[in-house]
């Protein structure tokens, strides 16, 4: 059985295995702010996500990662659902996310999970690659 919960400092090793990019200090900040979640299967952390709150009002999904041997089982949908519930409880009305303009698979993933395209930020990287911004409404409106 898979469960999703807010990350704890005891999850730090698993988090850094799934996403080594953030420093330990950054992970501790994310955990302390309640901006990281984990997915456990049979007591083992096999997925994680972290988000940031922009302008103190808009949550933005920064990263979601599922261990390779656990992909294709609906766990990312479960994690996004748990995050959406958490954000609703906190009073937020939408979740933003993005993917690079040259990455069709992540774009399809967003659409598959109910996100809608909200525009493109042009040339966000030096290589001329932009970001497609996605929005998931957290209300029934």
TrEMBL record:
CDD domains: NAT_SF. InterPro entries: Acyl_CoA_acyltransferase (IPR016181), GNAT_dom (IPR000182). Residues 2-139 form the N-acetyltransferase domain. GO terms for molecular function: acyltransferase activity, transferring groups other than amino-acyl groups. This is GNAT family N-acetyltransferase.
């Amino acid at each position: 059985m898979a469960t999703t919960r807010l990350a704890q400092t005891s999850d730090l090793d698993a988090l850094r295995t799934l996403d080594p990019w953030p420093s330990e200090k950054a992970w501790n900040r994310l955990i302390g702010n309640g901006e990281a979640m984990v997915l456990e299967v049979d007591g083992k952390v096999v997925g994680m996500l972290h988000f940031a709150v922009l302008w103190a009002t808009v949550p933005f999904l920064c990263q979601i990662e599922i261990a390779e041997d656990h992909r294709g089982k609906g766990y990312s949908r479960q994690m996004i659902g748990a995050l959406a519930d958490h954000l609703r409880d906190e009073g937020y009305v939408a979740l933003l996310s993005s993917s690079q303009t040259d990455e069709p698979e992540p774009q399809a993933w967003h659409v598959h999970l109910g996100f809608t395209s909200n525009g493109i930020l042009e040339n966000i990287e030096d290589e001329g690659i932009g970001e497609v911004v996605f929005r998931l409404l957290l209300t029934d409106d």
